[in-house]
Each structure stands twice: as C-alpha cells, then as structure tokens.
Amino acid sequence: MKFLILLLAVLFVVQVAPAQSDEEMLKRIYDKALEKGESYEMLEFLSKEIGHRLSGSPQAAAAVEWTRQVMIAYGFDTVFLQPVMVPHWVRGEVETGKIVKSKIGTKDVNICALGNSIGTGSGGIRARVVEVKNFEELEALGSRNIADKIVFFNRPMDPTFIDTFSAYGGAVNQRGQGASRAAQLGAIGVVVRSMTLANDDVPHTGAMNYAPDVPKIPAVAISTKDADLLSSLLADDNNLEFFFETHSEMLPEVLSYNVIGEITGNKKPDEYLITGGHLDSWDVGDGSHDDGAGCIQSIEALRILKELGIKLNHSIRAVMFMNEENGLRGGRKYAELALKNNEKHIAAMESDRGGFIPRGFTMTTTDTNYETISSWMSLFEPYQANIFLRGGGGADIRPLGAQNTTLIGLYPDSQRYFDLHHSANDTFDKINKRELELGAAAIASMIYLIDTHGLK
Amino acid sequence: MKFLILLLAVLFVVQVAPAQSDEEMLKRIYDKALEKGESYEMLEFLSKEIGHRLSGSPQAAAAVEWTRQVMIAYGFDTVFLQPVMVPHWVRGEVETGKIVKSKIGTKDVNICALGNSIGTGSGGIRARVVEVKNFEELEALGSRNIADKIVFFNRPMDPTFIDTFSAYGGAVNQRGQGASRAAQLGAIGVVVRSMTLANDDVPHTGAMNYAPDVPKIPAVAISTKDADLLSSLLADDNNLEFFFETHSEMLPEVLSYNVIGEITGNKKPDEYLITGGHLDSWDVGDGSHDDGAGCIQSIEALRILKELGIKLNHSIRAVMFMNEENGLRGGRKYAELALKNNEKHIAAMESDRGGFIPRGFTMTTTDTNYETISSWMSLFEPYQANIFLRGGGGADIRPLGAQNTTLIGLYPDSQRYFDLHHSANDTFDKINKRELELGAAAIASMIYLIDTHGLK
Fold first, then answer.
1. From the CA of B258, how many Å to the nearest CA of chain A?
2. pLDDT for B186-202, tens place per residue?
3. Considering the domain B21-88+252-453 in this protein, what is its CATH number?
4. Could you tell me if the ipTM is greater than 0.95?
C-alpha cells in the first residue's frame, strides 16, 4: 500500500511536470530577457567604461580581460582565450581637412582617415579634385586626368533599398578599393563620401585595403553634407583644391585574443553551437552597436540559458571575435583552431548588424537544414522576429562555412544602422534597452531550438 | 499604309505602357517617399518652430494655420477647417514635488501634473502616502486607511508583453481613474508611477478624468526611478510624507479646428478614404512622435499620390484631428459632420503610435473586407510591413466606426514608444528620417490599394 502511494505520487509528479513545449521555452527565455535582463547594464560598462577598442589598442586589451571576467563571474563552465596576432593601426592625433580656393573661399571639413590608410604626414597634401561616382568613370578619365589629383568618390548609398545593407553593399567598394584604383592612375590622395544614408556633418571611417604593387596613397572620409557641398562647388569651379593632413599609420602587429565562454554539453559535449560578435570596434564613438551589442547579446544568451537551468545537449559558446573591422584575424583563427582541434561545429550565429529590434535571421545552410529551421518560424511570430532569409550569417563566422557549419545571422531592423556605423554617432545613448534584450532572447531561442532538435 | 503604321504605333505605345501592377505602384510610392520625401523637413518645422501644442494653446492655433498653409501649398484640391470647441487645460508655471521626513531626509522629485487635473494651489498639499498596485488593493484598504492620505499608484507596465501597447493598456487605468477612485475613499491627492518601461528620471503626463459627483483631488506623475525609490523608502517607513504643489486648471473651452486637405476623386468623389493623426500634443517635449508624425505622414501620403499623378477614384483626405489627448472632440466632430453631410466614408486610417519603423496595420472591419485587405499582405512583404492584425485603428477615427467605415491603424514597432510618450523626451531628435518616410509610404500604399480595389 505504501508502495502504491509512492508510485502514485511519482506518477503525479511526472504528470504535473511535463517536458515543456518549444512555445513555453521561448516564452520563458523572452520573459527572462525582458524582466531580468542584464545586457543593457553590461553594454553600458563596455561602452562607457572601456569605450572604443580598435585591434591592438589598450582598450581592446581591457575589453578582452573584462569580458573574460564577466563570463567567469556568470559561472560558465570554461572561459578561455585564443591568442591571435592582429594589425595595429593608429589614427594619429591630428586630422585636418579643407576645401580651398573655392568660390566660397576656404572651408574646414570634418575628415576621418579610413582604417588601414597611411597618413599624409606633416604638411598634408593639397591638390585639385576629380569627382567620380564609380570605377568606370575613374578609368574613363584615365591617368591624364587623374595624375597628381585627389580623387573624390561620391556615389551615395541608394535610399530605395529597404534593407540598408544592400545600399551599403552597392557603395562600399569606393571606400575599400578606391585608393588603390585611384593610385594606379597616379592620384595622390582619396576623399570618399561617408557610407551613410543620413544627411549630416559626421564622417564615417571603415576599412580600406591597399592592392599589392600599387603605391599607397592616403584616404579619408568626409560627411555626406560636405560631400554634397564639395560636389556642388566643383560643378561651378573644378579648379578648387582640397587639403588634408592625417597621421595614421600601421604599427607592428600585436598579440590579442578571441574570448570564449563555454557551457559544456550534456549529451554531445564535443559538438558545438556558438554565438558571437566582434569585440573590436572602430576608434570613434564607443562601438555600442558595432559590435558591443553582438558580444553582450551572446554572453546574455548563454547567461539566460544557464539561469533557466536548461540542460543543453551540445556545448554552447559565446565568442568575442577580435579584429573583425580591419583584418578578420579572430574569425580566421577560430575556424583554424576548430579544425585543428576536431571541434565539430553544428551551427554558428553572429549578431553584427547593431542592437536594433530583431526582425528574424539570415542563414547559410543546406536545403534540409533550412527546412528544419524554417519550421520554427512560427515560434518567432509572437516575437515579431519571423523573417527568415537565406544567405549571410556574419563575417567572423564565415570561415567556419568551409567546415559545413550552418551559419546564422541575427537580422535586426536596418533603418538606423548606417546613421551611426563606424562614426562618432555610435554611442551607448543610441541603444534601446528592450531592442537589445529582444536580440539576446532571439539568439538564446535559436540556440535552444538547434540544441533540442539538431541539424543534419 | 500610313494608317497602318499609325495603328501599329498606337498599339506599340499601348503595349509598352500597360496599366501598372500593384507591385509596381507600391515600388513607385516607396521610392518617392525614400528618395524625395518631404515628411522629415515638415515634421522638423512643426516640432521645432511650433513645438508642443495642447488643445487651446497658441501653438495649437499656429499648428492649425501652418498645416492648412502646407496643404494649400501642395495644391490639394480643397483645404478647409472644421470648427470644434475644445477643453483648455493649462499646467501652470510651478510644479514642485518632494519626499519629506523619509530616512534619507527630504528629496526633490520631478513631478508632472496629469492632464485635466486640478492644481493644489499655493502652499501645495502634504500628507502620508499609501502605496497600492491596483484598485482592488485600494478598496481593501478602505477609507479608514486612505482618508487624508496621498495615494501612490505604483503598478509598473509589464515588460514581458512584446507589443508595449498591451503593457500600457494593463497599467493606464491608474492614471485615468486613480484620482476619483482614491477621492471616493477620502484621499487628498494622487501620485502615479509614469506609464513607461524606461527606467529614468522623466515623469510622463497623460489624461485623467474626474468621475461625476466625486470630489476632485490633484494628481501628478513621478518618474519610474522616483517611484521605485518612494516605494523602497515606504517599505522602511510608512510615516514618510509626500509634498506637491501644482497650479494646473481647466479654463473655459475655446474654438479650435480639425484641418482637412482633400484630393477629390475622379469616379466616386462623394466617397471618402481618409488618413489622419492628431494635431494636438501634450505640453511637454514637442510632440514629434505623438502625434506630429501621424499628421505629417498623412499629408505626405497625399502629396506622394498627387506627385505620382495617380488618378484616384475616391476622394482622399488628410485629416489633422484636434484634441485627441484630452477630449477627443475633433474625432467626434469629424464623424458627426460626415454623417450630417452624407459623406460616405469607405475607410479611415490613423497613424498615432509614433513615427517608428512600420511593421504593418491593425484593422477593424468585416470578415469580407479583412479578407480583401489580407490579400494585399504579400505586397507589403518586400517592405517588411506585413503584420496585419484585427482590431484597433485609432482613437480619432473610432467614432466613424458607427458609420460602418473600415478603420485601419498604421502599426509601427512599439519598443521605443513609451520611452518618450507624453514626456519631455518626445522631441524631434528621436525621429529617424527613414522610419518616418516608410510610414508615409505604407499609408499611401494602403490608400492606393483601397482606392483601386475598393471594399464592400
């Protein structure tokens, strides 16, 4: 009789504590993120107390140590560093730009050296300006018109794209390759319209790269307002000149780190699901959206899964990649070590489109896995995060693609991103607490679903 | 032979200029809004040059005249005013709040009289404080505990709702009815936690109403941070007192206006499709999101349809409703005149949830019309504005519901709205140009589709 009562009691317990449905688990994850979220305070510390953190800078080192300590404090099972050599580019203290000899006389212009660019050195450079919209126009002008000039790349981002990343993709080659394309024709410097849809006075930096065997010439960005002004002044008088002085330079490489926090899996500890962002940022603003948000959301996603006491099958990692902005060394190193250490990576997520309201996910995977993941779309409908797009994922996780890892990108709304991207506008006051938290919840939910249901 | 060539030429012309598909028309509307939009500059003027504009204020009169002139300048076929008497509540110059006799001594607190509230008059009121979360707690305490006290309504908005309007709906009765509920039990004043999910120092106003035959007592809002502080101090010492002084008062009603711009229909000029917002705002901030955005988007929607040279079947109106915030007189007057003048209103839209990224539409209509409208959902998918929800529409258009008008609300993302709603935070710098423009495009697109395909 006693045994029967005990049995009934056991059965009763089992009955009242059934396995929770995916719907219920996602609701628990979202509630935790919105009611007891810690991402906002974490990001406030990273942004305000550490600040911007370009690869090789003391702040980047501080960010490595701080995120390591945060993940240890949260009690993740393992927290470790992956050493990686990174470029060490510095902006230098003085940046000066001027339109000179124009019909309005001399006008100071805010400039911002492009990342990886050489500087002009003291005295700066001054020359006539040739405005082009694209490389075809540049080539058509030829060295006869370009030699000894400053080339002004002024193709705006197309505002009619709804996803502003498409507009960025259509304009960014001016910034990346403009200097070497112009230098091949004898130009002595390059001025690039900022990659933004905003009409303001703030220049936006970002990586440029020198082609091999082409003379290196200095490159700077100017604001969209100044680009429009310069263009209209040139239309009246193409003899005007532009002056700029920068002292940026590439120093010897330095040792830095990816920072990794892991919660070890219960059933398949040697299979990994990772989520990350990049810890480095440009050396303007404080890198709150690009990509403090993605790092903190990744830590927060693991914290939430741990706090909810969810027994995970796979090992889960939050990865702070180093050096996305001007080298991608961290992302490459991570994939290299995953291969070397035989760590099977089922899926890798990245949040690197700002901490804005999440609209869904992008994904690079097989048709079969896309079908599996798409079957979860309705689970994200209550959270209005059910746009599932094929392609993409994130720059840092892309190298894992060669290991057949499913790549997933958090897909936040893109309308505000390029207003602040790579500029002094990217500061913590532009972060909305709920939007940031909803991103962390979306990431944690996607990890939970992949962990529970697996991929092929 | 000449005739044949002519005929072929005509056929060719007809062939290359077919009627444009809905997809093409929406693309043209969105392109116009994003490339050559004028909403941002319009709203900048309304917000910065006119500023906040509570019913009865000089600024409200200025806003009436300015929007009238703007719509005349855009060449709308008819622009006219609808006279309407509105309440004229004024805040008074001095607002002072203090926690007194607490364990931290005296602390100044930012307060903000609730709209329509009487003031305390000179000298203010000072009393012990009773904190409650809801009316049930209040009733349970009864007049024995409430008489001669200040009642502190401190139920937070629930952060776990994804649509923050649901969280607002779950908390706002404290603000609307709290004073009369407390006065019935003998309270002498009311302090209400601000209706916001943000954790900051800014109090949020908003309408309250006195129940008939209940003594009128003054009511103020305090910030969420101060509400949390007051609550924790009360937990230690329920003898502490709160002091506040306000000089708000209701003056005699004044004459104001709805402002209406119309583009007359080509086929059914006596059938109307309208889109609107409310022109009045609270007397804090500058009313950019609530609801300058909705007014300007409505004007912009008509401007876009006109500029694109679209021949509209029905008469289309942009309506700036007066007095949504503390009386709804404009919305009621509009419906009353529509009935009196036999103006058949097929559909009425309102944008009154801020100028944020549009996610879709809400609608109150018949099953048949919901089916028709839902069949257009995929047209909004490229613009990521394809959440179509039943119910709602907007406070100003609700009175038209009795005339079987389909009511539609623009449904922007709600995450940031209550951070600024009814507070000093609602200023133009919180407006994102593209988000505002996308809202105008969504409205113009919906009008176009209803005009083209009709409703039952």
1. 33
2. 999 999 999 999 999 99
3. 3.40.630.10
4. no
